[in-house]
Automatic annotation (TrEMBL):
Name this polypeptide is given: 2-oxoglutarate ferredoxin oxidoreductase subunit alpha
Keyword terms, alphabetized: Oxidoreductase
Key word Oxidoreductase present: yes
Domain of life where this protein originates: Bacteria
GO annotation terms (biological process): response to oxidative stress
Entry keyword Oxidoreductase: yes
Domain Pyruvate flavodoxin/ferredoxin oxidoreductase pyrimidine binding stretches: 4-192
Organism: Schlesneria paludicola
Molecular function terms from GO: oxidoreductase activity
All copies of domain Pyruvate:ferredoxin oxidoreductase core, residue ranges: 233-294
CDD domains the UniProt entry points to: TPP_PYR_PFOR_IOR-alpha_like (cd07034)
UniProt xrefs under Pfam families: PFOR_II, POR_N
Amino acid sequence: FGVKTFQAEDEIAAITAVIGASFGGSLAVTASSGPGIALKGEAIGLAVMTELPLVIIDVQRGGPSTGLPTKTEQSDLFISVLGRNGDCPVPVIAAQSPADCFTMAQEALRIAVEFMTPVFLLTDGYIANGAEPWPVPKAADLKPLAIRHPAKPNREGEYLPYLRDDRLVRPWAIPGTPGLEHRIGGLEKAEDTGDVSYDPDNHHRMTMIRKQKVENIAQAIPEQTVMGPSEGDLLVVSWGGTYGAVRAAVERCQHRGRSVAHAHLRYLNPFPRNLGDLLRRYRKVLVPELNTGQLRFLLRANFLVDAQGLNKIKGKPFLVGELVEKMESMLG
């Protein structure tokens, strides 16, 4: 498939190489775990400011610092959603199983190129060391990515690199295309032209545009589904590699006649557009996580729901039994 790979000398070199590849018109991906994501942070901000499409894969492990480098954890949700200077929005999605990594990697690339933005794809140590049967798809059956590189000016004989479409997405011109010379960089840029701008009103406007562009992705992803009743006593909300254990625990409670449903999130920023309404259909909400409650924090902040947490930070996945015990205690 003509894929080029190389081992960079450090995390900063890796992310900046990916930015350069994207600027040159190529699909580009870099991968690391928590400490490496911290080192990539400044350059991820550059990718947000320049609005270039690329994917950052974070295989989460126990932290902070070197932490538990061979053990699983889900503690990088905050750094993925919030961990850069300034108002710096980045879409975040997460795989739920080893096979789902293939699907969500394609989805990360789709979102990146359709919305001209860097995208985080989160997995974790449990998924990375796991395995499951997976039919290798035929390349011809995969939906191609809609990549468009303009070849002519987009306004009255000139090229404006930040002239946006209805979804606030800018064009992706390849450097060296005749007549499409343009400026990009980390300094704030004037709307449409991309020229350096210190105008306060322009900075406010551009910040809000970048924010709204990421929020618009909610209209281009599936609505959230649930396994179980559409309303009831308890909704269990999970994400990432906890999928299998949580699904099994919910099914066990359902077989006991309990009014419990399961919503597994694969889109974490922005959330699915129907998630708030869905959460409010249940009397109680439980969020099991292998961290101190990062998704629970975001759900409470965004939707004002009294979500409760079950948190485990031991470098080990959840046991089905401990999940069932927590669900039963909440159901009474």
